[in-house]
Amino acid sequence: MRIISGEFKGRRITAPKKLPVRPTTDMAKEALFNILNNQFYFDSISVLDLFAGSGNISYEFASRGTVQITCVDVDFGCIKFINETAESFDMPIQTVKSDVFKFLENTKLQSTIIFADPPYEFPVEEFSKIRELVFENNLLEKEGLLIIEHSKHTNLSHISHYKYSKSYGGNMFSFFEMDN
């Protein structure tokens, strides 16, 4: 994987093969950040990266100037890799080793963007539970976005607060916002 824009543009990051990850493709990541670039100033937002895996999305935010980034993953190897990579690039990334659902139940951390990339084989009810915990626990800032990455074969349009989806190859991003 590579960082596609910002201070660290073009830098390659190679995660150990033993990590249980499926990094977002460069094409999908570039498309996602083109959408976000039109809505946010990256240096003035906070990001919560759920099911962070290799940290791929967080590195992109950090490269673009975001200074408040928290990664949550249950896998010790993933957390260790994110910490080592963030330290080597001097990126402002905090990590939390935790089950994502337990974290969402207990945290008070509000973020501008909450990005979740759970396993694609999750049942729809698990995707819905992410949305439920984020909105019921008031974890999204007023103008913020919850973005869930999933397979193009999974439909999340029936879940409340859904706004739209964008598909890139086999990846899909569904966007959720507070109702105005």
TrEMBL record:
Entry annotated with the keyword Transferase: yes
Keyword Transit peptide: no
Any GO BP: rRNA methylation
Cited InterPro entries: DNA_methylase_N6_adenine_CS, RNA_MeTrfase_RsmD, SAM-dependent_MTases_sf
This protein's UniProt keywords: Methyltransferase, Transferase
GO MF annotations, alphabetized: methyltransferase activity; nucleic acid binding
Organism domain of life: Bacteria
SUPFAM superfamilies: S-adenosyl-L-methionine-dependent methyltransferases
PANTHER family in UniProt: METHYLTRANSFERASE
Name of the protein in question: RsmD family RNA methyltransferase
Source organism per UniProt: Lacinutrix neustonica
Lineage per the UniProt record: Bacteria, Pseudomonadati, Bacteroidota, Flavobacteriia, Flavobacteriales
